[in-house]
Design goal:
The complex is a heterodimer. Chain A contains 10 helices and no strands. Chain A is an all-alpha fold. In chain B, the strands form 2 sheets. In chain B, strands 6-7-8-3-9-10 form a 6-stranded mixed β-sheet, with helices on both faces. The chains are: A mainly alpha, B alpha/beta.
Chain lengths: ~280, ~260
């Protein structure tokens, strides 16, 4: 016997949202506006090809302003010795800033997470302050601190500390938002107070992330030091900017290679550390 | 010991999970609450330790009103009530012992607990709790390396470490296989008998409810529909609680016991 399936109304297909097509059109309009020579920056592919040969001059010798220079592709290894001291200074600045910044960011992140904040007022207050801290670029902090405490590594460290608090507190508070709520309920049900709940239910869950974020900010600090030196906030950036201003491309080249090796080593070490800790 | 006085719980979304329940649970009893999913079993259990907000009537535990308790009184009340969860709710990334020591936080100062400096007496209580559920050899193992049944026994040890007067178990075997379910329920039953801890267990398997319960309470759509001994709870009673005939899905074993 072939009984027909019971007649039951099928659901009506919901109306399609226009959001995605409109967003695509909007994106195209903004791109065109940015590119057009009339309203935007007037990007021109021909200009790029025309001038690429001029850029090639800095790659190897033929420097019209500084005839002694041999170009980016010929690193002047004799210059290496004079970069050691500022490189160590950069390293020390990055370590101090990461330790202080990440240390301060941990307790802040618990107040900035929906899961662990003591109240909505503190949550939004702290989140607002963190947004402001993050919105200000590190170079601006460095400028302000150079004006306040003078030239040297100290203003650089202060700038990096604020930068690190902004980054780590933001990433950590979002990680805390996503923890398994089960252990939190268990701690509350046992009569633990807020601090104890955070310490024993939340912290063990987010600790590996915290280590990873801290190592990442340390790496960011090394990179940021190249820019901070420009405004007089110490480190390798000071030397980099000086050599750049004198068109000593073969000396700049040495610093670039050094930074590359440095960041690469940090990357390898942090991968190894993370694997051991997680 | 525990008195529900016309207790109602309405969640902020407007769901009326518990309607005008009046109940008296005597000290030392092993009470099993049965009902379909969404009947209000979890809400009833969480009204006892104030994990859900009571919106009508009150629950009085050991002379303390749950609804009128201030945060400190609520923490003190909760410290005397151990809780066991369906999904165990262990911190998987840390050791079994650290999980069980969570049951001693109520007796540890905030400063001590921040650095994990538990008193030797508290560590001893935690070890004894692990011994009682026969899993002490796993004390320094990471909780994530344990099987489901072992994790639930750690959950029971954590509740025991509080040295509670009451234990609440919210579907303690719903995530476990049938043989392990019996092991865990026997542990709970033994603890109830040996230590005289008042025990309230949510179950949705009827055969288990009849085997392990002294007293069975039936909930249907947030209302109390049955309250009596396990012996009296026959198929008609369960039909009343479930609002339909029983099926093989309502029992743990393939062949229904009842």
């Amino acid at each position: 016997m072939t009984a027909a399936a019971p007649a039951r109304a099928r659901p009506v297909r919901p109306a399609r949202s226009l959001f995605v097509p409109l967003a695509v059109v909007g994106f195209m309009v903004v791109s065109w506006w940015s590119l057009s020579s009339e309203f935007g920056i007037g990007f021109d592919l021909g200009e790029l090809i025309e001038n690429i040969t001029r850029g090639a001059r800095i790659l190897y010798r033929d420097n019209p302003i500084n005839p002694a220079d041999r170009g980016l592709l010929n690193p002047n290894w004799a210059f290496l010795a004079s970069t050691v001291e500022p490189m160590i200074e950069t390293f020390q600045m990055a370590v101090i800033a990461a330790v202080v910044g990440c240390g301060l960011a941990l307790p802040i992140s618990f107040v900035a997470s929906r899961v662990t904040a003591p109240g909505r007022a503190t949550l939004f207050g702290v989140r607002g302050v963190l947004s402001v801290v993050r919105a200000i670029p590190d170079i601006l902090y460095a400028l302000v601190f150079v004006a306040a405490v003078g030239i040297g590594p100290l203003p650089g460290i202060l700038a990096l500390v604020l930068f690190n608090i902004g980054v780590v507190a933001k990433l950590m508070s979002e990680t805390i938002d996503g923890v398994d709520p089960g252990p939190i309920e268990a701690a509350q049900a046992s009569g633990a107070n807020r601090t104890q709940t955070v310490r024993w239910s939340v912290l063990p869950q987010v600790l590996p992330h915290y280590v990873a974020y801290s190592l990442y900010t340390f790496e960011l600090n090394i990179r940021a030091s190249t820019v901070l030196g420009i405004v007089g906030a110490g480190g390798i950036g000071r030397i980099l900017y000086r050599e750049y201003a004198r068109f000593n491309w073969s000396n700049v080249s040495v610093i670039i290679v050094e930074l590359f090796v440095f960041v690469f080593v940090i990357e390898v070490v942090s991968i190894w550390l993370r694997r051991r800790l997680v | 010991m525990i008195r529900f006085e016309n207790t109602s719980v309405t969640y902020p979304g407007g769901v009326n999970a518990l309607r005008d329940v009046t109940l008296d649970l005597a000290a030392g009893q092993l009470v099993i609450i049965v009902g379909l999913s969404g009947a209000g079993k979890s809400t009833l259990i969480r009204a006892i330790n104030g994990l859900v907000p009571i919106t009508g009537g009150d629950v009085v535990v050991d002379g303390q009103s749950v609804r009128r308790a201030n945060p400190k009184q609520l923490r003190q009340l909760r410290s005397r009530i151990g809780m066991i969860f369906q999904t165990f709710n262990l911190v998987k990334r840390t050791s079994v012992l650290n999980n069980v020591l969570m049951g001693r936080l109520h007796n540890t100062s905030t400063l001590r607990s921040l650095v994990g400096w538990y008193r030797p007496d508290d560590v001893e209580i935690a070890m004894q709790a692990l011994e009682r559920v026969d899993i002490v050899e796993k004390a320094y193992v990471r909780a994530s390396n344990l099987s489901g049944g072992q994790q639930q026994r750690v959950g029971i040890a954590r509740a025991l470490a509080q040295q509670p007067k009451i234990i609440l178990a919210d579907e303690p075997v719903a995530s476990l296989d049938p043989p392990t379910s019996h092991v865990v329920l026997r542990d709970i039953q033994r603890i109830n008998r040996e230590l005289g801890i008042t025990t309230i267990v949510n179950l949705h398997f009827l055969d288990l409810a009849k085997v392990y319960g002294e007293r069975i309470i039936g909930l249907r759509a947030g209302e109390l529909v049955y309250d009596g001994s396990a012996a009296q709870a026959d198929e008609n009673v369960f039909r009343e609680i479930y609002g339909r005939s029983l099926t093989a899905d309502d029992v743990l074993e393939a062949a229904p016991v009842i």
